[in-house]
Structures are given as structure tokens and as C-alpha cells.
Amino acid sequence: MHKDYYRTLGVSRDATSDEIKRAYRRLALKYHPDMNKDDPDAEERFREITEAYGVLIDPHRRRLYTTNHSTDFTRETIFRDIFSHSDYSEVFRDIPIKQEWLDRLLRMGQILAYEAIVHGGRPKDIIRRSFVKIAFQGASRVFHNVMDIHQNIRIPPNIAENGGYVTLEYRPGFLTKKIKVKIPAGTRNGTVLRVPGMGRKGIVNSSGDLYLHIDIGSL
Predict the structure, then answer these.
(1) Of 82, 92, 97, 185, which is the most buried if we count CB atoms within 10 A?
(2) If DSSP codes are grouped into helix, strand and coil, which group holds residue 169?
(3) Which one of 3.30.110.40, 3.60.10.10, 3.40.50.150, 2.60.260.20 gives the CATH number of domain 149-216?
């Protein structure tokens, strides 16, 4: 069955990113399981709108979905990518649900925060699920799924061809950070550059990596 992500979020097909974010915030507050403990369907509804948001907020997925009617996306991948992309995940900071214990979980580690934001539930259930994932998937894989950051970056053709430096802003935590990144000569459209150690800061001073998805064009 074809999933109508636009209808799920209640937005038009030409909706902007800001309109998609506003629609998701409104629906997330309405259907979050923490706010609807007596509604057995709220959890699935929350996952549906989060899935729709994850597809429509990502330019590549949105293009595949809109032009090719592709819905060959797994929820786990969609949710992970929302959380790993600083521009997509900022929407959660404006949803004041269980803020007192989400802050506590954030201090304990982003793996727990990811589980809390994406899947919800009681704090003890979140902790249990997080440790189960670490045990079965391996700590390194889970760590990088959550601590790495993926960021789209547009660079001019001359820098892509000849190489050079670009300055960009991104958000590895609650504050925006500005860094200078070297672009190798001969960089092609769609190239993904890895900047080690510039992702989210984790436990014991370890950090994820920053992945820059290159789009070549006029700024």
C-alpha cells in the first residue's frame, strides 16, 4: 500500500522545510505516547508521523518518494538519520516532553537520548532497550549510529575542481559550532567527506565523526 507522507503530516506537496518541521512539531506533541497513555494507537501514530517527517525533510528521500513513488525506506534507518543530522533533529529541541529526564539522559549519553526521543517509553524501559541494542549490535556500531553527524554542504564548482577550504556551521550539541574544512581537488557531486572526531561528544571524551555530503553548485 502506498504511503502518503504528505497527507500524514498534513502538508502540501510544495511545502517548505520549515512548514514540514512546524507540522511535525504540532503532531508530535499531539500524538507522543507520553501525552496519550490511555490511547493504545498513539505510539504507532507517533512512529508514522516521525517516518513521514524523516522522508520529507531529507531532500534525497523526498525526491525519490515524490518522483518515483519510492517508499523503500526502513524506519530504523529513517529514525537514525533524523537523529544524526543536526538540521533534522533540531525539531526535537522544541518539543517539551519529559524534559527533566531527557536532560538527564542526554548527560548519560546520546544513545539513551536517541532511544528516548525516537521510541519513547518509561526511562527504565529506555535504558533496558539501549543496553540490549549495545549487547546485540556491538557498542561501536551503536555508538557511531548515534554520535556521528551527517550534514549537507554546498560548495562552488571552482573549489570542487581545484580544492580549497570552506567554513561551515553545524550543531554537534545545543550550541552551533563553526569549523574550516579542506575540500580535496577533484571532489565530485555526491561525495561524502569524513571529518574524524567532529561529531557529537560522547562518554569519556570520545566523539563521533562528521560526514559532509557534497552538493556542487552556486552559493
Answers:
(1) 82
(2) strand
(3) 2.60.260.20
